[in-house]
Design goal:
Blueprint (H helix, E strand, L loop, with lengths): L11 H17 L3 H14 L4 H13 L3 H17 L3 H18 L4 H17 L3 H17 L35 H9 L5
Helix pairs in contact: 1-2, 2-3, 3-4, 4-5, 5-6, 6-7
């Protein structure tokens, strides 16, 4: 396979296509490590291509290059959002989150930033409880790994001041409780007189 630099008048798109073709051939020949290097070069040329970032991440994970995989999963998530497909960003972000979690106490600052990105995405997609849970879980993991960094509870994720935060209680679901008189009417249906 050619390891030659780009041709003088070759567009970025043409370079990426050439590199991905080369990477596929390397993979077919069982040369996954060389294929990963080739995919990484292509991914650097086109960071906004979600499937290219994702393919690079998958191959890196297969080769147990977890830091490289996590970085490209995160880039894939960002690229999916940039391309207008935020729901597709959840899986790569969650996978990157899991890889960074497993690597703690390494890269705690990156883990905090990714946790905030994941939580914000979940909130934007209509899953605020999942976003809050991601922050809570991230902070528990950081604490367990003896890291001093914490993911801040901002905006909609911050605990309300009038609520009690009891240890072991589940995060706020966003469901509003019924008023007492409504609860009595509902309960009265089940109580025999």
């Amino acid at each position: 396979m050619s390891q030659s630099p780009s041709k003088p008048n070759e567009t970025i798109q043409a370079q990426v296509e050439r590199l991905t073709t080369e990477a596929k051939q390397l993979t077919s020949a069982g040369k996954d490590a060389q294929a990963l290097d080739t995919y990484r070069r292509a991914a650097e040329l086109m960071p906004g291509a979600p499937w290219l970032q994702h393919r690079t991440a998958e191959l890196a994970r297969k080769l147990k290059r977890y830091e490289v995989a996590a970085r490209h999963y995160r880039r894939a998530g960002s690229a999916f959002i940039g391309a207008g497909f935020p729901k597709r960003a959840l899986a790569p972000y969650r996978t990157a989150w899991g890889l960074y979690l497993a690597a703690l106490p390494q890269n705690p600052t990156t883990f905090v930033a990714l946790s905030l990105e994941l939580a914000e995405l979940q909130r934007a997609l209509g899953f605020p409880a999942d976003g809050k849970l991601a922050i809570v879980n991230a902070n528990q993991a950081l604490s367990s790994a003896d890291c001093s960094e914490r993911v801040p509870m901002v905006g909609e994720f911050a605990p309300r001041t009038n609520e009690k935060n009891e240890p072991g209680s589940p995060p706020e679901s966003g469901v509003k409780p019924n008023t007492p008189h409504v609860e009595r009417r509902i309960l009265s249906r089940f109580v025999r007189r």
